[in-house]
Amino acid sequence: MRRFLTFCVAAAAALLLAKPAPAQTLTMNDLGYFEARGTNVLVYNNLYNGGFYDEKFAGLEIIQRGERLATGGGIRLMNTPEQWDIFGVVSDRIVDREGNFVQVTLTHTDYDFAAKLRVTPKDGGCLVQVILDKPVPEALVGKAGLNLEFFPASYFGKNYLVDGLARILPKYPMHDTEVHPVSEKITQYFGESTFDDRGRGDFLVAKPMSVGHQIVMAPEDDALRVSVKSETEIGIYDGRHLAQNGMFVLRSFLPGGKTGKVLEWFLEPSVSKDWIRPANIGFSQVGYSPAQKKVAVAELDRNDTPAPEARILKVNPDGTKTTAKTVPAKVWGVYRHRYNYVQIDFSDVREPGLYCIEYQGVETNAFPIDKEIYRDKWHPTMDVSLVVNMDHMEVNEAYRIWHGRANMDDALQAPANVRLHDGYFQGDETNDKYQPLEHIPGLAVGGWYDAGDFDIQANSVLNTTQDLAYIWREFQPMRDQTLIDQKTQYADIHVPDGVPDNVELIMHGTLNINAQVENIGFVAQVIGQPDMHHYHHLGDAMTLTDGKIYDPTLKPYEVRGDRSGTLDDRFVFTSRFSAAGVMQDIVSLAAAYPALKDYYPEEAERSLKNAKMLWDKYFDDADPAKNPVQGRWGGFGGDPRLNAAIELWIATGDKQYKDFIVPIVEKQLDAKPTGPRDTGNVQNGMFSTQYTGGPNLTAALKIYPYMDKKFQAKVRALVPAYVEVITRGGQDNPYGVSIGGASWAGNASIINGAYNCYRIWKYFPDLIDPEYVLAGLNFLFGCHPYSNVSFVTSVGVNTKKVAYNNNRADYSVIPGGIVPGLLVKEDFFENKDDYPFHWGENESCINTAPQYILLCLAAQEVVDAMNK
Ligand SMILES: [Ca+2]
Ligand SMILES: [Ca+2]
Ligand SMILES: [Ca+2]
User: Is 787 helix (H, G, I), strand (E, B) or coil?
Assistant: First the structure.
C-alpha cells in the first residue's frame, strides 16, 4: 500500500514537471453545483425564503476556501436591493450534467417578465449568461440587471481593480447617491417603504463607485479574489448607503428591445490548486472541569491526511509549554460531504491549569481546566443582556448609557387589517374596548425587546418571565449586581441595590404582563412598530418614537404639550386571541408569584390575582372538549389549561388545581403509542413521546417533587425509554449533540435538550449520564463546526465578535447574548463572524437568555457532583 502511494506521488510529480499544470476548471459535483479546489459556485442551490424576504442567502453564490463571499447573484430590479425589495421567483431550475450547465428561470410576475440565467464552466471560471424569450418590459429598462453581491466585511482592508485602475474597497460608505421621484420606484413587498422622506415624494438610489468592463475584487488576496469581465459595462455599488446590511454589488443592466443571449459575464473565482484548509479544532472556549469528559473535534479538509496523534500542551507561568499528554486522534469520518472529522479525547488530563491543543500544525488558543469553569458564565447574560434589552428603561453602565427610556408613548390599538413585518396581522376583531388608533393606557412599563428589533412579542415576554421564575425556583441565585429602579425606570449595570437581580428581572416581566392583562384584557400577540421605517430602526431605542402620544388632530411632526401628530407610537396587535393562548399568561404570572412575594408583595399579589381572574374567566372556553385546539396542544391528551393549573397549584397549594391536574397527567403517562418514534419534541424542550402518541413526561416532571411515591415510581419506570431517545439525537455527527436549522440555527433547542437531561439527572441520577448536560454547553462554547468561537457573546476566550442585536450596525454585540449559531445548508455550515446581519445565525433572542442561565447553573451543579 505504502509503495503504491509513493508511486502515485512520484508519477504525479513527473506529470507536473513534464508539462504545465492543466487549467483548474470548475466541475459539477454530485450536489449540482460547481467546484474546483478551494472554490464553489452555487446556482440557486439556496432559494429566497419568503419568511423575512432577502436573507442574503440565495441565488448565484461563491464560496472560497470555505467562506461564502458572494450571494444574491441573479436578475434584480435595483442597484442595491434591500431586504424587502422584490426578487424573481425561480420558476424552473435545470441541472444539465450532459450540457454541463445549471439554468434557472427567474420570473417577476408583477411585470410579466422572465429571464433565464445560465451558468456554464469555461477555462478557470464560468460564463454567466442572461437569455430572454421576450424583451425586457419598457417599465424595467434601466432597472432590470444582473447583480452579484459581496459581503463587505470580508473585503475590509482590500482593494479592487476596474479596467486596471486601482481603488480601495471602502470600510464605510462614502460614495454618492441620488434621489428619484417615487413614481419611478419599484414597489417593495407589501408596498413597504423603508425610509422616511418627510413628505418629499422621492426615494434613494446608490450611484456606482466605478464602472468598467472588468472588475477584480481583492486581486491581492488568493482567498478573496473574484474577477468579472464583460462586453457590457459593469458597475460596482455600495448598498450600505441605503441600509447598514447592504452589500458591495456588481451590476450590469439588461439592454432593452433584445431577445436571446442579451448579457454575458465571465466570472472567474480564485482557484487554489494546492490549498488545504487549516484544521478547525473545536473545543470549549470556557475550558473544562477536571472530572468531565473532554473531547475536541478537529474539522479537516478532505484533501488533508489526518495525523494519528494530537498533543495537549500545558502553559507554564514562564510562558513555556510542556506536553501534558499525547493522545490518539480518532477519525470519525465525513459528515455532510464537505469535511472530515477527527475526535481528540483528552478526558484524563485533569490537573487544573492552562492548556492548549496542538494538532495537524494548528495550536489552539489557551483555555483553563478548573473546578469553577461554569460558575460565572451566566453573569453577562443576567447582568447585561437581560438588562440592556429592557424596554421602558434608561440603562446605564459605568460611563455609558446603552439607551434612554424608550416607548414612553406606548401604545395605540392597531387599526384593522394591518400587517406587521414579522408576520403579525391585525384582523377586524380587536377583542378589546379600544377604537383603531386609540391610545391604550398603562403600557409604558416593563418588558423586553424580543431580539434584534424593538417589539414586545407575547411569546417572548411570557416565556422570558416564566423561565426567570424557574431559575428562582430551581436555583435561587442571590446575585445582586444590578440596580433596577422601576419608579424612575432606570437600571444601572454592575451596581448592587440590595435585591437579587433574578427577582427584579421577574418583576420587569410581570409589570408588562399585568399592565397588558389589566388594560387590554390579555397579553397581545405583539406591541410593534407602526411602519417599516420604524421597524428597521438601529440605534438608541429612545429615539425610535418621540415619547409623545399620537394626536390625529395635529399635523405630522407638530407637537403640543405631551401630544404629537407624528404616527410613531407602537401598535398593539390584538387579534389571534384564544382562551387557550391566555393560559400562558397565567403560567407566567403564577410562576412569578413565589419569587416576588418576599421582595415585592404587592406585585406578587397582583400577579396571582390576575392569574386567578384569567383562570376563572377562560376556564370553560379553554376546555379542549368544547373548543378543540390544534397545534402545540394537539396529540398526547393535551389540555391547554394543564400548565396554568400546575403553576397555580405550586403558587397557592390549593387542592382544586391538583384535582384538575392529576387525572390529566395520569392519562399522559398511560398513553399508548399510536405511531413511530419521534425525536422532534425532545429537542423542542418537551419530555414527550419516544413514540408518537406515547407517554408524555413534560407535566409529570414539573409536579414530580410534589407527588407521592406511587406516582414517582410510575414516572421513573418511563424514564429509560425517554433517555434512550434524547441521548440518541447526537449520534449522527462527531459533536454528540443534535445540530439543526437550515434557516434558523439550533442553539436554543440544544440548550433545551441539555437542560432536559439535567432535569432527568436531578431526579434520577442513576438513569442518565450527566455528560449529556454538559455536551450542549461544550457545543455552544466552541466545540462545533465552521469555527471554534463561543456562541455566547463575551463568554469564553475566543467569542463572537458580532451579533444581530440592536447595535449590529456598529459590528458589535450585547454581552451575554446567545446567537442561534450554525446554519446547516446542503453541504456546508455557516456562522459568519464578520457580518452581523444574518438573523438566522446571529440574532440573540431574549427568551433564550434565561434558558441559558438555567443550563449554566445546572452544569455547575453537575460538575460539582462529578468532582467530589
Ligand atoms: Ca420581533
Ligand atoms: Ca439588584
Ligand atoms: Ca409618539
Answer: coil
What are the grid coordinates assigned to 5, written together? 502511494
Cα 53 to ligand 2 centroid, rounded to whole Å: 41
Q: How far apart are CA 386 and CA 378, in angstroms?
A: 11
Q: In 483-578, which ranges are continuous DSSP H helix?
A: 501-519, 532-535
Query: What is the CA(309)–ligand 1 centre distance, in A?
Result: 48
Q: What single-letter amino acid sits at 798?
A: N
Using alpha carbons, list the distances in angstroms from residue 32 to 73, 107, 175.
Answer: 17, 22, 38
Residue 411: is the preceding peptide bond cis (ω within 30°)?
A: yes
Type of residue at 85: D
Q: Would you say 150 and 217 are in contact if contact means Cβ atoms under 8 Å apart?
A: yes
| Nearest CA-CA partner of 259 in 144, 120, 136, 138 | 136
pLDDT reported for residue 675: 64
Closest ligand to C-alpha of residue 562 is: 3
Nearest to 774 by CA among 76, 74, 290, 269: 290
Question: Counting ligands in written order, which one lies closest to the CA of residue 529?
Answer: 1
Q: How far apart are CA 404 and CA 92, in angstroms?
A: 50
Report how far residue 291's alpha carbon sits from residue 133's, in angstroms, rounded to the nearest whole number. 68
Alpha carbon distance 860, 589 (integer Å): 28
* Cell numbers linked to 193: 417603504
pLDDT for res 626:
84
What pLDDT, on the 0 to 100 scale, is given for residue 684? 40
CA atoms within 13 A on the CB side of 518: 16
Task: Flag residues of the chain having pLDDT under 50.
Answer: 1-23, 631-637, 679-690
Q: How far is the CA of 858 from the centre of ligand 2 (A)?
A: 22
Distance 450 CA to ligand 1 centre (A): 5
- Residue 406: exposure state from Cβ atoms within 10 A (0-12, 13-18, ≥19): buried
What pairs with residue 124 in β-bridges?
none
Residue 387: all three cell numbers together: 438588562
Q: Which of 850, 10, 851, 846 is nearest to 447 (CA)?
A: 846
CA 44 to CA 129: how far, in whole Å? 14
- Summarised one tens digit per residue, pLDDT across range 716-729 is 999 998 888 877 77
Return d(Cα 561, Cα 136) in angstroms, integer.
54
pTM for the predicted model, two decimal places: 0.94
Three-state DSSP class for residue 600: coil
| Secondary structure (3-state) at 386 | helix
Strand partners, 131: 116, 261
Ligand nearest to the CA of 573: 1
Q: Is the CB of residue 668 less than 8 Å from the CB of residue 699? A: yes
Task: Return the bridge partners of 333, or none.
Answer: 341
Q: What separation in Å is there between the alpha carbon of 867 and the centre of ligand 2?
A: 31
Whether 773 and 757 have beta carbons less than 8 Å apart is answered as yes
Place of cell 407637537: 559
CB count within 10 Å of CB 538 equals 18
**What is the pLDDT, as a whole number, of residue 678?**
52
Q: How far apart are the first and last CA of the chain?
A: 50
Percent helix, strand and coil across the chain, each to the nearest 5: 30, 25, 45
Strand-pair partners of 73: 60
Strand, helix or coil at 749? helix
List, as one string, the DSSP characters of 757-779: HHHHHHH-TTTS-THHHHHHHHH
Give tens-digit pLDDT for 228-251. Answer: 999 999 999 999 999 999 999 999
Place of cell 444581530: 804
Residues with CB under 5 A from ligand 2 (ion): 480, 482, 497, 499, 501
What value, to the nearest 5°, has the Cα angle with vertex 489 and ends 487 and 495?
95
- For 315-352, b/e burial (b = at least 16 CB within 10 A) is beeeeebeebeebebeebeebbebbbbbbbebeebbee
Residue with cell string 489552539: 364
